[in-house]
């Protein structure tokens, strides 16, 4: 008998067909609405594998409903939506999809950096609204990117891919990481700094760490107070790492110059959110990895991770050590 799996969002027919070769598939049939918790609570009871998205909160209560669950395969690199420690205690593997989205997410990080620095969105609205009367010496002037210093907080795969892009733009690259990465320093010509110093010297600050209890509110009032007045903060990792109240205050009081954000404390971002009243913020709806090619790769990798575990094969994307 094939193992039973549940997929928490409608995926493409190709990937469903692929998974169906190995598994007995049930799926939430909507593409743009997350599965209601009540339904997931029922579905999880009998399944062997769960294919989840970052919008599903797989907490200990939900995990406790499962009788046969062996794997939760998250179609994302981040897995803070899953209580992976609790899953580990229950012998349930949790897998993620790193690697395939690295370059795509670094591209969006750079796109936000450039859009915020050169006021691209503001300029486009200006034009579309019919405000373009003439060329003016200081009209819509922004910040230079070339020659500036970029501070990368979290030099993982995506952080290194951003560093590489920054080097191509003739930027000076500094980084902070839990531990120093001597090889990466040499390879990408980047310099390690303590967090405080990074915040003081950087023109661009990119938040690239996973969201954990340690990184919650990593960038808050005190951190903004250390930044340069021309600093631009970019966050494409997870919302809770940057305290939004502190960010809003830093932007309104011109403590910093601008921000580019793809992730928020609460998603979807409420349209009444104060950040939306500010012209010096560029906002996107959590689309870091959203290229057609990469999303297809992530779905395939998440499917393979789930199938591997269900078939008893080793899988290198297990993030919690269930063998302990
Ligand atoms: C997206 O945010 C991911 O973690 O893959
Ligand atoms: C994510 O893949 C990271 O390590 O940056």
TrEMBL record:
<dbReference type="InterPro" id="IPR050223">
    <property type="entry name" value="D-isomer_2-hydroxyacid_DH"/>
</dbReference>
<feature type="domain" description="D-isomer specific 2-hydroxyacid dehydrogenase catalytic">
    <location>
        <begin position="5"/>
        <end position="320"/>
    </location>
</feature>
<comment type="similarity">
    <text>Belongs to the D-isomer specific 2-hydroxyacid dehydrogenase family.</text>
</comment>
<keyword id="KW-0560">Oxidoreductase</keyword>
<protein>
    <submittedName>
        <fullName>D-glycerate dehydrogenase</fullName>
    </submittedName>
</protein>
<dbReference type="InterPro" id="IPR006139">
    <property type="entry name" value="D-isomer_2_OHA_DH_cat_dom"/>
</dbReference>
<feature type="domain" description="D-isomer specific 2-hydroxyacid dehydrogenase NAD-binding">
    <location>
        <begin position="110"/>
        <end position="288"/>
    </location>
</feature>
<dbReference type="InterPro" id="IPR029752">
    <property type="entry name" value="D-isomer_DH_CS1"/>
</dbReference>
<dbReference type="InterPro" id="IPR006140">
    <property type="entry name" value="D-isomer_DH_NAD-bd"/>
</dbReference>
<dbReference type="Pfam" id="PF02826">
    <property type="entry name" value="2-Hacid_dh_C"/>
</dbReference>
<dbReference type="Pfam" id="PF00389">
    <property type="entry name" value="2-Hacid_dh"/>
</dbReference>
<dbReference type="InterPro" id="IPR029753">
    <property type="entry name" value="D-isomer_DH_CS"/>
</dbReference>
